[in-house]
Every structure is written in structure tokens, then in C-alpha cells.
Amino acid sequence: MAGKTFLQGAVVLGVAGLIIKIMGAVFRIPLANIIGDTGMGYYQTAYPVYVLLLTLSTAGVPVAISKMVAERNALGHPYEAYRVFRISFALLFTIGISSSAVLFFGAETIVSNLGNPGAKMAMMSIAPALFFVPIMASFRGFFQGMQNMKPTAISQIIEQLFRVTIGLTLAVLLVDQGLEYAAAGASFGATAGSVAGLIAVCGMFLFYRRSVFKAISRPQGESGERSSSILLQILVIAVPITIGAAIMPIMNTIDVAIVINRLTISGFTPEAANDLYGQLTGMAGPLINFPQVLTQAIAMSLVPAIAAAYKRREIDFLRYNVELGLRTSLILGLPCALGLMTLAEPIMLLLYPAQKASAISAAPSLFILSFGVIFLATVQILTGVLQGMGKQLIPVRNLAIGAVVKVILTHYLTAIPTVNIRGAAIGTVCAYIVASVLNLMAVRKYTGARFDFRLTIVKPAVSGLVMSAVVFVIHRFLNVLFGNIIESINMANALATGLAILTGAVVYVFMLVATRAITSEELKLLPKGDKLIRIFSRFKK
């Protein structure tokens, strides 16, 4: 089969994403202990504003670079692919310096309007990162278009490592000067990380550029595309993706007013309504983001693979990648969803032992949100397929329809006293279901892909359900066992939950092999695929 699949790149990005998530947790927990609630208030005032501006700056352009570079390489025009990178570099340089200047020089006005003037230094400290990260994104988009995910993964890890190390070190050194300074030091970690990540990806670019210098030289007598045409193509792809990336954050912001207001109307006090909202968004919600690391890695790797196949009109290979992408997302998403549902309360108690009542109260919301992991995974994968085919407006429209459904359901359900905050969780899940179904219909329409129901859904679902049953029994047994041995209830739950999760992972992999949900041909596509085939063949015997 011609072409290059996305699996190896997805594995590289997925592993990097998990490492980054772990380092992020390592950063947040000690930081909260160092600077306390007040310092975290300053930090959390600056960081979300930074993330919003970063999303607007970089959400769409790297995808556009990846797609356009892959298309030009597929047609045998490496120099034009390189020109896409150069023009996008200039665009992101301009965006970066503009957004960085807005945040740095407008810091005092922004924090005053947000009602937290003490966060001024934190916002100024993080502002330079808005210059470096977009530039770094242009290099990453170019490498992704070449279907080389290693530079992106390595630079992401280096960026996060410096962010965590420098941020925590400065927070410790500056805490005696005041919490405003300590929060600013923590925020500066993002700037230090972006500089380190940029240096790393530039170094890798120079290394790879030397090896392909002849390929990216201008061919004699070839005029090529006009720069304005390339820039327009970048914007046509990037703008809808950026709008799509902003839809859910905007809806989540609107959620604040809807949820708390409707809970108050249903009989909760404003304080109780705020507590319930905090349990949903601050305790249960972040856990749903963890499985996204893996499925997002698949989506990022899919875009250039789909774009190259679509440009070369290799329809069979395109359909193969589409079908494999959806199956892979479900193989990863189903165990995460079922595992979180099965151990919703134990996991909440494991993570928040000091807030036992709140953790137990948040568990039903986690249970509901966990179901949405399956559909969020498919939304991300099918969005990557549509973006690779140049249909980037379709997933934006579908997600917008889902967001409207979310607002309507949240508005009505949260006002029902017996449903309360769970109504917001139901609304979120339904938004992902709607967007997923609409994306699937579009993908089938434009690719003609037909999914093997038994292989794609039944076998992973059976494997996941067996895993869930084993996890449930193991956790119950170990919780009682450790409860009789260890005095600390929290420690007993932590050990039982941790061992149940590890056991579940082993059982799920065994079931995938036993049900033949993964084929030998697909294992070959993974890093060290031949070795994996030899290992799994022993189980089959």
C-alpha cells in the first residue's frame, strides 16, 4: 500500500503528551504549596488569558502548515513546501510580536478589568512567551507536514521541562519578596520554556535542513506559487480552525453564568451553586482532558497523512487511514471512558483525599463526563480527517451545533433540583455526541469510508467491558483487604485504586489480543512493531 500511515507519529506525540501532562501535574501541586491560594489567584488570573491569546494565535496556522507542506511534498514539490514554512514563519512572527506586546503593555489594564491588580507582574512575565511559542509552532507545523513528529515531541518535552524547573525555582526564590513576585516567577517559567523549546526545534531544523538542502533549493526555471496566494491559503485553512478551537472555551465561559444562575433558581444558595460548579470544572472536568492527549496525537498525525493521500488521489489508502484512525481512537478512548466510569468515586477520593465530601459529590459528574470521552475522541479524529481533506469549515459548523445543544440542555437540566450540576455534564456529553455523529456523516460522504462495525466497535467494547468488570471486582476486593491491614482509609483506597488500574490495563491489552481487535499488519506500523508481534504471538498460542 502506498504512502505513509500516521501511527508511528501518533505514538511519538502520544508518549510526549503523557510526559508533558505528568510534568504539568508535578508543577501545579508544589506550586500551590509554595505560593498558596493568594499566589495561585495571581497566577490563575494571568495564565488563562495567556492560553486564550495563544489559542487565537496558534490553533489554526500549524495545522495549515502541516496540511500544505504534506500536499506539496506528495506532488514532488519540496521547495514549495519549504516556501509555505517561510511565509507562515513570517505570519506567526508578526502575530507573536503583536499578541505579546498587547499582553505585556496592556497587563495593568487587563488585570484591573479582571478585578485582580496584583496579577500585573505575573501577566507581564508570561507575555514574552506569546512571541516565542508562535514561532516555534511554525517549525512544528513544518515537521508535522513532513510526517516527522520527533522534533515536535522533543521540543514540547524540553519546553515543559524548562517551564516546570524555572517556574518552581523562581517561585521559591521570590516568595520572600511577596506573592506577586512569586507568581510572576512561576509565570516566567512559560517564557523560559518557550525559549528553550524554540532553541531545540531550531537546532533540529538546521540538522534536517542540511540533509535535504538540495531538495529545498529553488528548481531552475520554476517560478512557483505567489507568496500572496500561499498566505491566502494558510488563512483560509487556519481561520476556521481557530474559530472552531475557540467555540468550546467560549461556551464554557458562558456556562459560568448559566450554571450558577440556574442552580440558584432551583433552590441552591449562591455559595452552594459555586461549590457545585467548582466540583464539575475544577475536580471532575480536568480528568477528561487526560485521555485527549492520546487522541489529539492521532489527530495531529492524521492531518498530513490524509492531506498527502487526498492530494495524490490515493483513495484506498485515504480510506484505510480514516478507518484505522477511528478504530485507534476507540481502542484508546473506550478503556479510558469505562475505567473512569467504573472507578469514578475511588479516583476522585484518590486525587482529593483532603476534600472527601466534595470528591464524593463530584463523582457522579465524572461518571457522566467519562461517557463523553468516547465521542470527544471520535470528534478529534474525524476533525483531523476533514481538515486534511480541506473541509475545515465542516467540523467548525458541527461543533457549533453541538455547543448550541450544550447551552440549551445545560439551561434546562441544571434548573431541575434532582439533576442540578449533572445537567451541565449531560449537556457537554450531548454536545460531543452531536458533533461526533455529524462529523462521521461528513467523513463517510466525502471519503466513502465504510467502517467494520464488529472490528471497530464490538471487539474494543467487549474488551473494555471485561476490563471494567475485572477492575470493579479487584478494587472492591483490594479495598476491603487493605482496609483491614492499613489504618489510613485514604491510603487503602489509593493502593486499591492504583492496583486496579494497572490490572485493568493488562487485562484490556490481553483482551485486544484475544479478540483480535488489533491485526498483525497494524502492529507492524508501530515503533518496534516486529518485536510487538513476537510478544503478542506467544499469547495467541
Task: Provide a short characterization of the protein structure.
With 541 residues, the chain is mainly α.
Features:
541 residues, 3 domains, 84% helix, single chain, mainly alpha
Task: Please provide a written account of the structure.
This protein is an all-alpha fold and 541 residues long. It folds into 3 domains: 1-225, no CATH class; 237-450, no CATH class; 452-541, no CATH class. It is 84% helix and 0% strand. Helix 1 packs across helix 3.
Annotate the secondary structure layout.
Elements: H1 7-58, H2 61-74, H3 78-105, H4 107-113, H5 120-126, H6 129-145, H7 150-174, H8 179-211, H9 227-265, H10 270-311, H11 315-342, H12 344-351, H13 356-388, H14 393-413, H15 422-447, H16 453-485, H17 489-514, H18 520-524, H19 529-540
Helix pairs in contact: 1-3, 1-5, 1-6, 1-7, 1-8, 1-9, 1-10, 2-3, 2-6, 2-9, 2-10, 3-6, 3-9, 4-5, 5-8, 6-8, 7-8, 9-10, 9-14, 10-11, 10-13, 11-13, 11-16, 12-13, 12-17, 13-15, 14-15, 16-17
